[in-house]
Design brief:
The chain is mainly alpha-helical. The chain has 15 helices and 6 strands.
């Protein structure tokens, strides 16, 4: 027999046994028979309902149609299950607000475009959230609905028919070369502070996120046959592997005096051990450091943004910058590639001189 679902009575405890092409599984129903015949009849009836629903799930999976049973699961429960696996902060906050929303206890198969639209409007009007935060939590919900489609719990993503809350344009600007020099000269207190300073400046020349700065090991810096040193690392956020060459400035920041230096360290030793070990909010160090030279809202992302912009200003093409940053989609890199005055001037200066004598009248 290819597939079958049966109820088994083991010493008064009821189980559901499933056979699918020779593979057997057994699951307790949490039901126990009693000495009361009338009560036992109700228990067997409930067990048969469960058996029938399990049989429906197997048939749905085999024929590639949405799980009619799984679609009845509460949206909050589905998201909570996924949150337990990922522990993603944004997803956790999305779940918090979903539980606060008066229509949040909805089944997956009851989520409609109108429901999504109303939830987004509620996030913007009744929670006190900024538009940026509301956009993040709305995006998290949309991704969960996309996963529900993947898991065949719903036929289509109702959020696809609703425009997402737009993310406001970031006001954080990349640093100029002069600002990077000023930061390099500006002091920052404490041993942790000094390591944060070195890591930030290193990111300005490599584009590494703070999560990758923390996990960067000396063994991830390799010397090639031509004498150059390269970072070879799998990114913590995306899982994508990046290959980033170190220029003289980046090498000097971490104490590499020559190409051979990058193989003379314990491979598993962290390049920034204090940063990796700290539980402190390092953003506060950056903000105070930046404020000392009148740079507002300095953040780790500022360094990554700076690397992308400076690389473009000094002649790198957008595809190369995208690969250095480890972006899977070049459209992500384009957000960093907003034209600066330097890029605008270079573009205009590169245009040919047509009227070399005098302009037409």
């Amino acid at each position: 027999m290819g597939k079958s679902v049966h109820i088994r009575n083991r010493k008064g405890r009821l189980y559901i046994e499933t056979y699918i092409y020779g593979k057997q599984s057994r699951l307790s129903l949490g039901l126990t028979l009693t000495g009361d015949k009338g009560q036992n009849k109700k228990i067997w009836k409930l067990a048969e309902v469960i058996r029938s629903r399990r049989e429906m799930q197997i048939a749905c999976a085999e024929w590639g149609i949405p799980d009619m049973v799984g679609g009845e699961k509460k949206l909050c429960i589905y998201i909570e299950e996924n949150y337990r696996k990922s522990r993603n902060y944004t997803l956790g906050r999305c779940l918090f607000y979903l539980k606060e929303y008066k229509f949040g206890q909805v089944r997956l198969d009851q989520v409609s475009p109108l429901w999504v639209e109303d939830f987004q409007a509620w996030l913007l009007s009744a929670t006190g959230l900024s538009q940026g935060s509301a956009s993040l939590y709305s995006s998290a919900l949309r991704h969960q609905l996309k996963l529900a489609v993947r898991d065949r719990l719903i036929v289509s993503n109702p959020a696809d028919l609703v425009k997402n809350i737009p993310m406001p344009e970031s006001r954080k600007l990349p640093l100029t070369v002069d600002e990077v020099r000023q930061l390099a000269e500006a002091p920052i207190g404490g041993e942790l502070g000094r390591e944060i300073k070195r890591a930030f400046l290193f990111s300005c020349f490599t584009g590494l996120r703070v999560s990758d700065l923390k996990s960067l090991e000396w063994g991830m810096i390799q010397r090639r046959d031509d004498g150059t040193c390269w970072i070879c690392k799998i990114q913590k956020k995306t899982g994508a592997r990046v290959f980033i060459p170190l220029n003289k400035t980046a090498g000097a920041i971490i104490g590499l005096k020559g190409a051979n230096d990058c193989i003379n360290f314990d491979g598993q030793q962290r390049v920034f051990p204090r940063l990796a070990a700290t539980k402190s909010n390092t953003d506060q160090y950056l903000k105070k450091w930046g404020a000392s030279i009148n740079i507002e809202n300095l953040s780790w992302h500022t360094a990554r943004h700076t690397m992308a912009t400076l690389a473009l200003e000094f002649g790198a093409d957008i595809r190369t910058v995208s690969e250095l940053l480890g972006h899977k989609d070049i459209s992500t890199t384009l957000r960093y590639a907003k034209a600066t005055d330097t890029l605008k001037k270079k573009a205009v200066d590169a245009m040919p001189d047509i009227f070399v004598q005098k302009p037409p009248k």
